[in-house]
């Protein structure tokens, strides 16, 4: 050591004694030339020599070469410059080191530790006794020790995942300073204000007045942390906090990880100058969001820069399946609208569109959704068994009443519904609307507000049973159930006995409805395969539940094995991290509870040092600098200079010849622009997509299919002649292969004895009807029914067909139905026969809307059932002559059959616009004429 200069190989300096020998060698080489007088050479005296060679090396060149040799020797000695550490402390008396080793000091802990180590080295050189206090550790007695012993304690010191508790050391530090009044204090602060800092600063103030306090602080960086993560509909938002001591903008990013510590997303954030808080959002799909277990600040390694997320934080995904037709399912008219608005604040909603209920249920179950809500879905079809198994595995199914559910035979209900004594296929009605009665004290709705303005006009009535009170969560004023539920396996089955829209009640318009759904959805986990307790009814016991530590965080924010001092936490009140409850995950892997270092509403405040008369130092340690590379570069420069000097002195410049350089050959690359050859594949588009066509179902029975083709051909010609519509030739379709969406209306003749299509095909038909399409089922058996046959073969076949569809409640066409006036004014829908009844979707009616002629919404009935053989009356040959006689023998009947067909087509194409009140006056005038 030579002051701040150290040599790793000092023995190499012995080579410096070789410098005189090197000097002599350089003086002797080249040897001095011998001078000989030769008179004849006088003739050449005036000739200019071509080359001049120095007789000996100049002194300055010799000195340069000696310096080069000295540099090489010095480089081999490996010189290192080690500046001495500056502590800013007087060099006498005891030394008390106060170390903030909470999470706020973790981000630059190595630098802090090096500064403390340098302070201890200085104290050891001055033979000063030292006491070290870690302010995030439990309180212990303070005692002086040699600096070397304290250095061993410092080597084992690490940041803790909670904040330094300075207030707990006030008494111990005060007693120590009174016993050792000459003590000098070095406080290695993290810059973050705590709860009891005033008392702590007051204890140090007396020593500060004597100039015996030195405070180390980092004035170039703010303390950063995360708090208050929120799984909002727009994404995962998290609060980013800083102490705000720097009046400069700050940018950074947060990263989301799953339980396996695999990254799933990242987002940037920006602080305005002087701002202490900002918010960033991770825009991720809900399935990925629910996998997030940890959000951390990139580059900030501390427990405070980590937010742990447990299963209670996850946003549930709710699948909604509505039995309503798609064109009826519009805002303010559909169950999807009310359910979506009620669920939006706390769940992500997936509504089934353009598919049958059974297909939607299958897809939602395959996607592992934890909650499904079925709004007036009656026939579950082939999905019922799969749905039942999904509930047993932990899913939560919520069903809402309606005409379809009332008319269907369904076992997937929590209670048995009354079959008799109901109106409109299972809806109980009153002369006076009922109000809410009460919520079960042990049910999930306990404690919710009971509004007085909720009225129930209809409900599905439950069959009285001994288990009914235990399954009832909410009742009406007359004691009848409003909401019933049953635990099945690990899942839950819930039934609202009213509709999910305003048809039967105004419950969906109240503020209580979203809270009821929140409670129900809260009973589900984020996935169906969860523990049984998560999906069942809430426990009636009020005893607190505790969870043992599973994985905890260290001060640097990394997971570690829980320390022996970690205690279980209450599941309902996990709190924030502290020595007995360090931040981390508690409980089993399928029911983790997260404890974080900061509360959701926490703020970071900078530490105020105003009460102290202290000397302030920055966290900085001068690093050793290796001088060898610099000496090497200098030696190389000397060597290059020596070579150039010798080159010029030896006349090398004059021997250089300038070689002519040939012109550089320029290689020209031709850019070939290959024009793409477009393949003009002549594809023939579906004509049905470009021109309206009627369609019929190909049954496989030649006579029936020929009649259907001839009938729709005749109807299309009649429509072209009498209306502005010009339909194309009719198409025969295969329900299993052809696209049904191209056709507004499909005619389906029922062939007696035929087996129904497979469930997958019926699901396509169901989706077509839900998407606004209309199907006409024609049994063509009116004559058999007139003969007194109650159950005809065609009727039995139709029942089997309809069993695979989600069919609404039906009724004969009412006199004022819009179908009776879509184009022609009709009071009956004839075909080849005139005695059969025509059925359409039933229209709910009350005393206020008894004359209501159409369905709720702007749609049409997705189904028409008749037995009058419509195609037989419409059928024509190539000469447009009728193929079959009508039952009365009068052509007036055939004309009325054509008009009935026109009304059905216009009804399928235009909906219920004729029901608008603006047309009433025109209709009345026509009736008057």
TrEMBL record:
Keywords from the named record: Membrane, Transmembrane, Transmembrane helix
Transmembrane segments: 6-26, 59-81, 626-649, 656-675
Signal peptide positions (record): none
Source organism superkingdom: Bacteria
Statement: the UniProt record of this protein carries the keyword Transmembrane helix: yes
Residue ranges of every copy of the DUF4159 domain listed in the record: 693-909
Domain Aerotolerance regulator N-terminal: 6-79
NCBIfam families: two_anch
Protein name according to UniProt: LytTR family transcriptional regulator
Protein's organism: Labrys miyagiensis
């Amino acid at each position: 050591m030579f002051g701040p200069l150290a040599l790793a190989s000092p023995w190499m300096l012995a080579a410096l004694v070789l410098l005189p020998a090197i000097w002599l060698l350089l003086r002797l080489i080249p040897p001095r030339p011998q001078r000989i007088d030769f008179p004849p050479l006088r003739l050449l005296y005036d000739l200019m020599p071509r080359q001049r060679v120095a007789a000996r090396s100049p002194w300055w060149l010799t000195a340069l070469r000696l310096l080069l040799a000295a540099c090489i020797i010095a480089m081999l000695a490996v010189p290192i410059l080690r500046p001495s550490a500056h502590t800013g402390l007087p060099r006498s008396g005891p030394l008390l080191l106060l170390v903030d080793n909470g999470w706020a000091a973790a981000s630059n802990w190595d630098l802090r530790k090096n500064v403390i180590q340098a302070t201890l080295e200085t104290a050891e050189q001055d033979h000063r006794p030292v006491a070290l206090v870690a302010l995030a550790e439990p309180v212990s007695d303070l005692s002086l020790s040699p600096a070397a012993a304290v250095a061993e304690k410092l080597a084992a010191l690490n940041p803790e995942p909670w904040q330094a508790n300075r207030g707990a050391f006030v008494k111990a530090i005060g007693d120590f300073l009174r016993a050792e009044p000459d003590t000098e204090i070095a406080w290695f602060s993290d810059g973050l204000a705590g709860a009891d800092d005033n008392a702590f600063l007051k204890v140090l103030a007396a020593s500060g007045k004597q100039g015996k306090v030195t405070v180390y602080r980092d004035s170039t960086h703010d303390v950063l942390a995360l708090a208050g993560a929120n799984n909002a509909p727009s994404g995962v938002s998290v609060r980013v906090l800083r102490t705000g001591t720097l009046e400069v903008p700050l940018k950074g990013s947060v990263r989301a990880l799953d339980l396996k510590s695999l990254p799933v997303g990242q987002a940037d954030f920006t602080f305005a100058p002087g701002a202490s808080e900002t918010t960033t959002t991770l825009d991720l799909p809900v399935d990925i969001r629910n996998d997030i277990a940890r959000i951390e600040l990139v580059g900030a390694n501390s427990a405070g820069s980590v937010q742990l997320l447990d299963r209670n934080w996850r946003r549930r995904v709710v699948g909604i399946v509505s039995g309503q037709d798609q064109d009826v399912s519009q805002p303010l008219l559909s169950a999807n609208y009310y359910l979506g608005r009620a669920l939006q604040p706390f769940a992500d909603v997936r509504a089934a569109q353009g598919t049958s209920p059974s297909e939607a249920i299958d897809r939602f179950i395959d996607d592992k959704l934890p909650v499904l809500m079925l709004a007036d879905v009656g026939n579950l079809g082939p999905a019922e068994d799969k749905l039942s198994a999904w509930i047993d595995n932990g899913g939560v199914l919520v069903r809402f009443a309606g005409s379809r559910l009332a008319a269907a035979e369904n076992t997937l209900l929590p209670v048995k519904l009354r079959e008799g004594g109901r109106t409109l296929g299972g809806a109980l009605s009153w002369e006076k609307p009922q109000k809410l009665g009460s919520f079960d004290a042990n049910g999930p709705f306990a404690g919710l507000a009971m509004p007085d303005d909720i009225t129930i006009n209809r409900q599905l009535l439950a069959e009285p049973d001994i288990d009914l009170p235990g399954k009832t969560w909410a009742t009406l004023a007359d004691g009848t159930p409003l909401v019933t539920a049953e635990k099945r396996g690990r899942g839950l089955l819930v039934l609202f006995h009213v509709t999910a829209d305003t048809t039967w009640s105004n419950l969906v318009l109240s503020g209580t409805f979203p809270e009821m759904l929140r409670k129900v959805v809260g009973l589900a986990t984020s996935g169906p395969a969860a523990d049984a307790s998560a999906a069942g009814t809430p426990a009636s016991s009020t005893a607190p539940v505790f969870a043992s530590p599973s994985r905890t965080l260290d001060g640097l924010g990394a997971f570690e094995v829980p320390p022996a001092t970690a205690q279980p936490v209450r599941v309902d009140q996990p709190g924030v991290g502290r020595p007995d409850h360090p931040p981390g995950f508690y409980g089993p892997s399928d029911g983790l509870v997260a404890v974080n270092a900061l509360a959701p509403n926490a703020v970071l405040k900078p530490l105020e040092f105003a009460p102290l008369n202290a000397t302030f130092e920055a966290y900085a340690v001068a690093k050793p600098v290796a001088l060898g590379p610099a000496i090497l570069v200098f030696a190389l420069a000397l060597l290059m200079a020596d070579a150039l000097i010798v080159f010029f002195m030896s006349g090398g410049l004059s021997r250089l010849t300038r070689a002519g350089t040939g012109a550089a050959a320029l290689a020209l690359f031709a850019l070939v622009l290959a024009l793409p050859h477009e393949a003009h594949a002549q594809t023939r588009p579906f004509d049905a997509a470009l021109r309206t066509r009627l369609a019929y179902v190909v049954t496989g029975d030649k006579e029936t299919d020929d009649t259907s083709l001839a009938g729709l051909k005749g109807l299309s010609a009649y429509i072209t002649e009498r209306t502005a519509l010009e339909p194309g030739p009719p198409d025969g379709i295969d329900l299993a292969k052809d696209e049904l969406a191209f056709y507004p209306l499909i005619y389906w003749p029922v062939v007696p004895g035929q087996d129904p299509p497979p469930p997958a095909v019926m699901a396509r038909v169901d989706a077509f009807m839900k998407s606004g399409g209309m199907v006409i089922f024609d049994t063509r058996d009116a004559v058999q029914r007139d003969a007194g046959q109650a159950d005809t073969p065609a009727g039995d076949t139709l029942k089997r067909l309809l069993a695979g569809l989600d069919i609404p409640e039906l009724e004969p066409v009412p006199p004022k139905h819009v179908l009776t006036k879509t184009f022609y004014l009709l009071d009956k829908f004839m075909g080849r026969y005139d005695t059969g009844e025509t059925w359409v979707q039933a229209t709910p009616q009350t005393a206020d809307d008894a004359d209501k002629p159409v369905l709720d919404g702007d749609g049409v009935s997705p189904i028409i059932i008749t037995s009058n053989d419509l195609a037989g009356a419409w059928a024509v040959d190539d000469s447009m002559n009728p193929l079959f006689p009508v039952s009365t023998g009068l052509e007036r009947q055939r004309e009325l059959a054509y008009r009935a067909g026109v009304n059905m087509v216009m009804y399928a194409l235009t909906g219920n616009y004729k029901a608008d009140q603006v047309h009433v006056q025109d209709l009345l005038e026509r009736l008057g004429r």
